[in-house]
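Our consortium's second objective concerns turning raw sequence data into structural hypotheses that experimental partners can test. To show how far this objective has progressed, the report includes one record in full. It was chosen at random from the queue rather than selected for favorable results. The single chain below, 504 residues long, was entered without modification.
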Amino acid sequence: MAQPRRIALYCVLNFGFWCLLALLYGIGGGQNPRILHLVLLFALCSSFVIDLDGLNGRYALLAVFLLIYFLYYGVQDLTDLGSGRPAPSSDGLFSLAEALIEVGGVLLVLAYRATLVLAYRVAPARRSAADWSPRMTLIVGTVLWLVGTEATYVWYVDVVKNTTVESIQAGLASLSQLKTSYYLFAQMLQPVGILLIAHAWRARRGAPLLILVLTMIVLQLVLGFIVDIKGLAMAGGFLVILTIVLIDGRVPKLWLLGAVLFVYVAFPVYQAYRAEIVGNRGLARTQVAANIGKTLDIALSAKDRVNSGQDRAQTFLERLSLKASIDMIVNGTAAGVPFQHGYTLTPILSTFLPRILWSDKPDIPTGRLVNKLFHLSDVEDTYISPSHLGELYWNFGWPGVIVGMSLIGAICGVIGRFNLREAPTVTRLLVFALTIQLVVHGFEGSIAASYVVWLRSLAAVGLLHWVFARRRVAPPVSSHPDATAARILRGTGFTTRPFPHLLR
């Protein structure tokens, strides 16, 4: 699509969004609507359409980041506008938190684009790349997924039986440093295994591999239910859909519909499980695993009660929204909550030093620290997500946002350089997908937790690439007898179609 047509599409999208805002405002008549913030945020987050070169191209990662950025910081104000609920933001046309969101997004986009342009000037695109064989992809993927699944189950069911500080400390004390390192590393390999299995399925297709993929997704749902981690439950389906998009360069409509139905049907059940089984009854995960059928019945019976009424659990979109965290951090630091000056980022410095070598390495529970310092809950184990943007501001103020968001954009720009449109290899899929899962989707959590796992995952991918990838060089066209014959025939004015036996 030519550039003028893309700019026209961008203008049409934004005009349509303005019409939607006007319609929602008329329906809801919301108090304190954040219309200016929504207009500016959508204008920023829809800018990827100007340069998007395919769903698996060089700007695909930026497109995913901006879509998720809008979900995190705009979707709640949009739903509040239509429902008539007053937005939980400060009064006035435009707040400081909203300025933080807009500036951070602009810096992300500018740094991504600048880094991508520079990367192609330094190292132009290569025509060939090393890749795995489909058979080895399936074997290694299955092994890694099984090992990672077993380690995840043992860790959350037998070692860390619940989320209390006492349970975590007791579980860690029961293991040696070597076993702790193994379980943490094996869990990190589980999404790698999922991606490899999904890639093998897309490479070979066939019913047996599809059955394997569906079985893997179902087991992920069960495992996520037992350990009460929704992200783990959805990881199977999310990574399979992501693999289809990145390999085929298209949106799998049927798979996407299934994901939407899961969110609509199953998410309230998971919420009921957390409220009733974990909260009210306090059952340990070992009890849940031993009586999963009964536990599911209890969660289903409590679903309507937990997800309705004045004290209902949050909806899926409400849980996605992170704007309230930005408001809280901006207002809290203005009221005297101390800046961290890099304290919550220090675990990144020890990324590649396992506890077996450094038993006292820093482990900072950023979410619990947010809860404690901002006085949000009397429950010590409560985790409040600051988002990467909020944590950057909480550490260094505006300089943290300017430098940090520019660095994040530059990192993603480097990853965008190695896209799957130019070379759909296994290694590129792993790097691209893990970046989306841990850096882009993980933008909601704490920085150290996301980037430590991401860096270690990339190191593991690099090792796997060195062991299993082999460069495949296609024979020159002129040396291929069929191609030579075809070229000679074309030169004489004949076609090869009437004489297929000549090229057999």
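The partners drew two points from this record. Strands lie at 130-131, 470-471. The first strand starts at residue 130 and ends at 131. Both points have been shared with the crystallography group to help prioritize constructs.
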